[in-house]
Amino acid sequence: MPTSPVEPASGTLLAFLGEGGAFGRWLLLDEGGIAGEGLARDGLPDPPVSAVLAVPGDQLTLHWIELAEGLAPAQAAAAARLMLADASAEPISAMHVAVGRPERGLTPVALVPSERMTQWLAVAEAAGLDPELVVPAPLLLAPPEEGFVRRDLDGLADYRGPAAAFTVEPELAELLVAGAPVEAVDEARFEAGLAPILAAPPLNLRQGPFLRRRQWKLEGRRLRRVALFAISLALLSLVVQVATILSYTFAADRLQAEADALAATTAGGRADTRPGFGAAASVLFEAVRATPNVEVARIEYRPDGSLGATLMLDNPATLAALQARIEASGLNVQPGERRNDGGRPSADLILGPA
Asked: FRET pair for 226, CA 20 to 30 Å: which of 49, 273, 340, 343?
């Protein structure tokens, strides 16, 4: 097995963080198993397809709790935070809570100080890594059907059992395993079981505020296609805007021409002495403001130069007062249909020259 740094173009780099927060050992995994290994002090390999960060189990706590099924990730994290609020030595608000995959009816939940999680990711970033997975080291062991398996470290040991995982000193382990059988796992067996675990880890600390952000890489032909698409979209948007402006301009010119022709002549070709829309509307609105209990519901400027309006009012006396004010302003009022709209009287009027 190679033991010197390599420069792989693919595979998964598994880097172990030590007790001091610095990288220690690393393994490179590919389809055939372990393709390389080494120590971080001798240099890490070039970034592979994916990277996984293994963090010390004694620097976080793993709890196995009962959670309701079907919860969304955010709901599961919130429920676990409430259930473990009293189980944390530090304020729960300062802890990062990560929820894993259920195992034998219990769900693993990791509690780690948010500041420590930030430091771990900073160390990885300084080494040029953006790990997809951050996994507690004891969860890299495959659980046995019963009892525990143990991987010995320097003064500590990782333990893994069904719905159980922790890192502890050997002298304290007896209290936790409670007499269950414990089988030691050597490095060869440990490494042989890594691939299926990394394919579907029981818990990934990169969730919630520490969720890995997807980075898009565009190169060569794909970048050119995206650029051409963006340019085409911009040109299409410009064409639509220009067409809209032109259509509005032509429509406005046509309406202006019709208005000018209507204002210049009558149906018989004589000069039009009737008030235009602005003058007639001004008289109508002024009379409405001066007459209580009257509202304008509709207004229409007719081709013959008259102004039609539908008014909401309370009684015939109000209509008479409004008509008198309009006629006093120099316009003639022709009463139209009177009806009842929604329980309120209404009337149509036509305003023209006196």
From this structure: 49
Which 3 state secondary structure label does DSSP give 3? coil
Identify the H or E element spanning 338: strand 331-341
Question: What residue ranges in 66-187 does DSSP mark as E strands?
Answer: 95-99, 107-113, 133-136, 148-152, 157-161, 164-168, 182-184
Give the span between the Cα atoms of 57 and 144, in whole angstroms. Answer: 19
Find out whether 10 and 48 touch, Cβ atoms under 8 Å. Answer: yes
* CATH number listed for the domain at residues 12-210: 3.30.420.380
Helix (H) or strand (E) run with residue 11 in it:
none
Residue 165 pairs in a beta bridge with 160
H or E, element range at 34: strand 33-39
Domain 277-353, what fold?
Answer: Gyrase A; domain 2 (3.30.1360)
pLDDT tens for each residue of 16-45: 998 777 888 899 988 878 888 888 777 777
**CA atoms of 2 and 6, how far apart (whole Å):** 8
How many angstroms separate the CA atoms of 159 and 266, rounded? 101
Name the H helices within 34-162.
73-83, 114-126
By CB atoms closer than 10 A (0-12, 13-18, 19+), residue 331 is: buried
Q: How far is CA 117 from the centre of its chain?
A: 23
Residues 348 and 310: their CA atoms lie apart, in Å, by 4
pLDDT 10s digits, 115-137: 999 999 999 998 888 999 999 99
List the chain domain ranges. 12-210, 218-264, 277-353
Nearby residues of 292 by Cβ (< 8 Å), 6 or more positions away: 318
Q: State whether the Cα torsion 283-284-290-291 is positive or negative.
A: positive
Q: How many CB atoms lie within 10 A of CB 217?
A: 6
Taking the CA atoms of residue 139, residue 141, residue 147 and residue 151 in that order, the dihedral angle to the nearest 10 degrees is -110
